[in-house]
Design brief:
Layout lengths: L2 H22 L2 H4 L4 H15 L4 H35 L1
Length: 89
């Protein structure tokens, strides 16, 4: 496979995953899928990351995201174990 195809696929995968995070965070529903609002929010986020609070904001958001991923994984495990128990009955 050509290099440009590999790079294109990797970029497509990255964009799909980032879009998934926007949906997972509830931003699409909370903004009624208003792309202008979403873009404005992302610009505000970028400005914050260019400011003096950058390190503090990144640490806070990283902890929050990590906790959310862990909670979701725990919920998925619970759902899977319940489904497995139900199928044995």
């Amino acid at each position: 496979m050509r290099d440009w195809m590999v790079e294109r696929r990797a970029r497509t995968k990255q964009l799909i995953e980032l879009g998934g995070l926007v949906v997972k965070a509830g931003l699409v529903d909370l903004t009624d899928d208003d792309r202008t609002t979403l873009y404005g929010a992302f610009l505000a986020l970028a400005r914050k990351l260019q400011g003096e609070d950058r390190d503090q904001a990144l640490a806070l958001w990283k902890r929050s995201g990590k906790r959310a991923f862990e909670d979701e994984a725990e919920q998925q495990k619970h759902i899977a174990s319940r489904s497995h128990e139900d199928s044995r009955q």
